[in-house]
Design a protein that fits this description.
Blueprint: H1 10-26, H2 38-42, H3 47-57, H4 60-64, H5 67-75, H6 81-96, H7 100-103, H8 110-117, H9 124-140, H10 146-160, H11 164-180, H12 182-187, H13 189-199, H14 205-219, H15 225-228, H16 231-239, H17 241-253, H18 263-276, H19 282-296, H20 302-305, H21 309-322, H22 326-343, H23 360-374, H24 384-399, H25 405-416, H26 422-436, E1 454-464, E2 467-478, E3 482-487, H27 493-501, E4 516-519, H28 532-537, H29 546-555, H30 560-563, H31 572-586, E5 590-594, H32 602-614, E6 619-623, H33 627-633, E7 636-641, E8 644-649, H34 652-658, E9 693-702, E10 712-720, E11 724-728, H35 735-743, E12 753-756, E13 762-765, H36 781-788, H37 807-816, E14 818-821, E15 824-837, E16 840-847, E17 856-859, H38 860-865, H39 869-884, H40 891-899, H41 905-910, H42 918-929, E18 936-940, H43 948-960, E19 964-968, H44 972-978, E20 981-986, E21 989-993, E22 1017-1018, E23 1024-1025, H45 1035-1050
Parallel strand pairs: 3-6, 3-7, 4-5, 5-6, 11-19, 11-20, 13-18, 18-19
Antiparallel strand pairs: 1-2, 7-8, 9-10, 9-12, 14-15, 15-16, 16-17, 20-21, 22-23
Helix pairs in contact: 1-3, 5-8, 6-9, 9-11, 10-11, 10-13, 11-14, 13-14, 13-18, 14-16, 16-17, 16-18, 17-18, 17-19, 19-22, 21-22, 23-24, 23-26, 24-25, 25-26, 29-31
């Protein structure tokens, strides 16, 4: 027996360790070294010697010397507090010093349960040591061991322990497991939720409070997007079922479920639904049946739903037999058939056989066989506990139907390494996986040990607020590879990119080791007047000489002349290329590209593809919704799913073969319950058909003051309510400039005229959509909208060039303000209002120094000739906006409006825009642009930042919109699905095609008259009022009627204004 005494000095301990090493190394075939655990348990002595023995002799020393029995004896010694505390402290120390995997197999189930019982020990130090021991064990053990070893013991104690301290301690451990084993706990939610539902009603206030907090944390593991927003309500149902169940069922019945319904989702929903089936009101029970029917259709297989059938089917069948309403019975019958079909049962589900579960006994022969083949010396009785422990983990992986080699290596290799060399460990794990897989199962095994330099090989966790995005995820990046980062919306792609950029990913190489550059395509507005070359030279991170900067800019297409132009003259595509030139000069090892094709035309996207493929020493991580671009560029896919980051070799097409459901990430199909609804515009005076033009350009030319060349030449076009226009062309062709002239942000300065209907409202989202909200990022979307429309006008309208009155405009108005009326000179002061005058308007003007009784009306053309064009336009805009503001500018109405764009009320009223994602910010801008019910919607590159679901919803919304649509886009898929008219821009010239430009009203159907029969109207007594169409009078009859009215007035009779219509 080898042991160090309590009083032995450090040198003696070292001597003992060396002696042990020599003993073990000197007798490899002899019996395992003996070890007395008593000093280590009782006084903490001999621990270093034990660690040294474990590292040299392996777990055999624990097996041979009765480690489990020694711990059991110590933990059950009620007379010796120090021994009980020492046993717990020993376990903590071993875990903390890196040998936790050695002792894990000897803790379950007996020792683990005894430590949990110590949570209620009367001695405080023992309780603290027990809590620390359990926390250390669950944090060290593989997550795949948690469901079969740790979790059942914790749930049993929470449910049945008579001691509240034990319940409280177990709830604390559950909170830890939410973080360390989220995927595994999510799978076990059907067993967890019923226990937690009882715990939240515990008689002990401390347990009740802790259970409710733990339940809230556990529900964060439910990843179903459809019910995510209802989770607080579902928790309240468990806490206060009498009041909350009917209200929550009402909320859920209005939801169309589209996401896959898995076990965690059902475990949270079924308690509510089973209770709802026992409600008194038939209407409530009917809604429950509808919810069950909708959710059942989205269950993947019968194994998912079968555990819940006994809780739902008997209640549905009873309801079908007792409910009196035949329509409700039909709904219930439909739900029963759907549920039975998904579960593949015929009765009420109560006689189902237990599901087939792989046990440790089933896996043990396979583990032993693989060990004998690849590491014969390990397959001995001396390692029996460790081998059985490995078999239990294997069984859990099989039950989870996880057949990915990377996951098996992660879960098992550390334990096999304790008794076999690393190479043999990998071979053993692979063989066990192959023998455990069924005949029809496909094993996903990718070789991650391929040749090439590792730039990064780290394991980390990532969260956003209270939401866990990644847990112990492994990211391995090879030099020269191009990784496409993909995942469902909200899975954390952009958060991961930002975290890498900000140095918040644990284990990611520091900037001193690996140069990482985040490619941004939004240039700060303060840089607008800086020349392109100076912008590059001013970036101190690059350390580039002027010659290097010029060469880099030239390589991406910037000529010497263009390099001297200001950044403000660049289109969005050229700004993207400028950002790439800067990244090239940085000589990055890793490029982070978030939506790099935004603003790029087809030619430049092709250039970017070629450039990224040419990088042999630089690694790229790319997030993009452009599936074609990703498919052409990437060499590997990094898939964010279920809190893990998994690598798949090959491009997007190959990835979809491995993960078929990922195809939905890149399809442009609108979801049933997710579409944008753009408010339809009011009628325009004089516009009786959708073909009549409401915006025109005639022979317009334009040149930016800072540019040496003209941007637009001789542009002629028109827009109507029926327009569906795609403005196409290469970067820098003048597309955005054209649109800015249409909306009034610019004015023609090389001849020509821009005309708009006086009552026209335009909804405009610029190329750099975020500039609309840049100054309001610390406001909520609600506050932003209230501020923008506070005066009844759109605040952005006031800043447009067509509204800002310059000194030159003031001089024109001053000269044109003098007017002679009846020989008296007067000076026009303000334009007050307007009224219809034939095909145009006349405007009421007031005069300086005279009362309102002296006001007169002047024709529109007369005022424009006098220099009052912008004042007339300002009044036109105000009058147009009055037509659109038929709803109050209040919170409820704003939330409802934004809901039509898929933005939840929580984000609208309670979250500042600084914290919103790019897609959510675009929705804020879209909502603001359409608040006034515009007649024409103009979107400059709307596909930027929007995910595929939102893009499909936007297309659907624009198709159903009753006004005109004009979009600038480089997305062929987007333009072809929406537009039938094309304006092709090249070198400043416009070539239209597919247009239907008409003079006058055109031949389309009338929009100022209602189609079909008139609706019946009734008076206050319920009597039908006959609607007689008024006969149109001839000119002669109109003159006679007017003479009659004048004669009646002369006689003093009362004449009503409606008679004059």
């Amino acid at each position: 027996m080898v042991a160090a005494t309590a009083a032995a000095p450090v040198e003696a301990v070292k001597s003992t360790i060396e002696s042990l090493k020599a003993q073990v190394q000197g007798t490899p075939d002899s019996a395992t070294a003996t070890f007395d655990f008593t000093p280590a348990i009782a006084t903490g002595d001999n621990v270093d010697a034990l660690i040294a023995t474990l590292k040299t002799d392996g777990v055999k020393v624990l097996e041979a010397n009765g480690f489990s029995a020694a711990l059991e004896k110590a933990l059950t010694d009620k007379k010796n507090n120090a021994v009980r505390e020492g046993a717990c402290s020993l376990i903590s120390t071993l875990c903390e010093k890196g040998v936790g995997h050695y002792v894990e197999p000897y803790l379950f189930p007996t020792v683990f349960n005894l430590i949990i019982e110590s949570f209620a020990d009367k001695i405080a130090t023992v309780k603290a040591a027990a809590a620390a021991a359990i926390k250390n064990v669950v944090q060290v053990m593989t997550p795949w061991a948690v469901p079969v070893l740790a979790l059942p013991a914790l749930l049993e104690k929470v449910k049945n322990s008579p001691k509240w301290q034990i319940k409280l301690g177990c709830l604390d451990i559950l909170d830890l497991l939410v973080v360390s084993a989220p995927e595994q706990l999510a799978r076990e939610m059907p067993d967890i939720i019923p226990v937690m539902t009882e715990a939240i009603w515990d008689t002990k206030p401390e347990v009740k409070k802790a259970a409710r907090a733990s339940l809230t944390k556990l529900t964060a593991l439910v990843s179903n997007k459809d019910i995510e927003k209802f989770i607080p309500a579902l928790i309240n149902c468990l806490i206060n079922p009498e009041q909350e169940v009917p209200k929550t069922i009402q909320l859920l019945s209005a939801t169309t479920f589209v996401s896959e319904v898995d076990s965690p989702t059902l475990s949270l929903m079924v308690p509510l639904l089973s209770r709802g089936l026992n409600e008194k009101l038939t209407a409530t029970k009917r809604k429950v049946a509808v919810i069950i029917d909708n959710m059942s259709k989205l269950v993947d297989n019968e194994n998912t739903v079968r555990p819940f059938l006994p809780k739902l089917l008997p209640g549905l069948i009873k309801m079908e037999q007792t409910v009196a309403d035949p329509e409700a019975r039909g709904v219930v019958n439909k739900a029963i058939k759907t549920l039975q079909g998904v579960g593949k049962v015929s009765g009420d589900g109560s006689d189902l056989p237990p599901p087939k579960v792989t046990k440790a006994e089933d896996s043990l022969p396979k583990v032993n066989a693989a060990l004998k083949k690849h590491a014969a010396s390990a397959a001995t009785d001396a390692n029996a506990s460790l081998i059985r422990y490995i078999a239990q983990i294997v069984a859990n992986l099989v039950n989870a139907r996880n057949l990915e080699l990377v996951e098996w290596n992660s879960a098992l290799t550390a334990y096999v390494n304790l008794m076999a060399p690393e190479a043999a460990s990998h071979a053993t794990v692979k063989e066990v996986l192959e023998k455990s897989a069924g005949a029809d199962d496909e094993i996903l095994a990718f070789d991650d040990e391929e040749e090439g330099e590792d730039l990064c090989n780290c394991t980390f966790s990532l969260a956003y607020g209270a939401k866990i995005l990644l847990n112990t995820a492994t990211m391995r990046l090879k030099r020269g590879h191009r990784y496409g980062l993909v995942g469902r919306n909200g899975s954390g792609k952009s958060t991961l990119m930002r975290s890498i950029q900000q140095g918040q990913v644990n284990g990611f190489p520091s900037p001193d080791e690996v140069r990482t550059f985040y490619v941004e395509h939004d240039i700060d507005g303060s840089e607008e007047d800086t020349t392109i070359l100076q912008f590059i030279l001013s970036d101190k991170r690059l350390g580039a000489s002027e010659e290097e900067a010029k060469a880099s800019l030239a390589s991406v297409g910037f000529t010497a002349e263009r390099q001297e132009q200001s950044i403000g003259s660049l289109s969005g595509g050229w700004k993207m290329k400028l950002a790439l030139a800067r990244a090239m000069l940085f000589k990055a090892d890793i490029l982070l590209l978030d939506e790099p094709t935004n603003h790029l035309d087809v030619l430049n996207v092709k250039w970017l593809e070629d450039y990224l493929r040419s990088l042999t020493t630089c690694t790229s991580i790319i997030v993009s919704h452009d599936s074609s671009f990703l498919n052409n560029v990437v060499s590997d896919i990094l898939y964010l799913n279920r809190f893990k980051l998994k690598r798949y070799p090959g491009n997007l097409d190959q990835f979809v073969k491995y993960v078929p459901e990922a195809k939905a990430f890149y399809e442009l199909n609108p979801q049933e319950d997710y579409n944008f609804r753009i408010p339809n515009p009011p009628l325009l005076d004089g516009v009786k058909t959708k073909e009549k033009s409401i915006m025109k350009m005639r022979n317009v030319g334009f040149q930016y003051p800072v540019s040496k060349v003209q941007q637009l030449y001789d542009i002629t076009l028109q827009v109507s309510l029926s327009s569906r226009v795609a403005v196409l062309g290469p970067n820098g062709a003048g597309k955005s400039t054209l649109v800015k002239l249409l909306v009034g942000e610019l004015e023609p300065n090389k001849g020509g005229e821009v005309w708009k209907h006086p009552a026209l409202v335009v909804g405009y989202v610029s190329q750099h959509a975020f500039h609309h909200i840049d100054s309001c990022l610390d406001k909520t979307p609600l506050e932003y909208l209230l501020q923008r429309f506070a005066t009844g006008e759109d605040g952005e309208e006031l800043t447009k060039t067509t509204r800002v009155i310059t000194k030159e405009d003031e001089e024109k108005m001053k000269a044109g303000a003098l007017i002679t009326i009846e020989g008296q000179k007067r000076t026009i002061d303000e334009i007050i209002s307007r009224r219809k005058l034939k095909q145009s308007y006349e405007y009421e003007v007031s005069f300086k120094g005279l009362s309102s009784s002296e006001n007169i009306y002047l024709p529109r053309d007369d005022l424009i000739k006098r220099g009052f064009e912008k004042a007339v336009a300002a009044l036109d805009t105000r009058e147009a906006q009055k037509l659109g503001l038929t709803r109050p500018l209040v919170r409820k109405e704003v939330e409802k409006h934004y809901a039509d764009f898929g933005l939840e009320a929580e984000f609208v009223s309670h979250n500042t825009m600084r914290g919103l994602s790019g897609g959510q910010k675009v929705k804020v801008v879209l909502g603001a642009a359409t608040w006034r019910r515009p007649h024409v919607v103009i979107l400059d590159e709307p596909t930027n930042y929007l995910d595929r679901e939102s893009l499909a919803a936007l297309i659907d919304g624009l198709k159903n919109f009753e006004g005109g649509v004009l979009i600038i886009t480089h997305s062929k898929e987007f333009s072809e699905s929406l537009c039938n008219e094309v304006w092709a821009m090249k070198d400043g010239y416009l070539t239209p095609s597919g247009h239907n430009w008409v003079e006058g009203q055109g031949s389309g159907p009338r929009i100022d008259q209602k189609d079909g029969p008139q609706e019946d109207t009734f008076d206050a007594m319920g009597n039908k009022v006959e609607n007689k169409a008024s006969k149109k009078l001839t000119s002669k009859e109109e003159r006679k009627k007017k003479k009659d009215r004048m004669a009646r007035r002369k006689r003093g009779e009362e004449v009503f204004t409606d008679e004059e219509d």
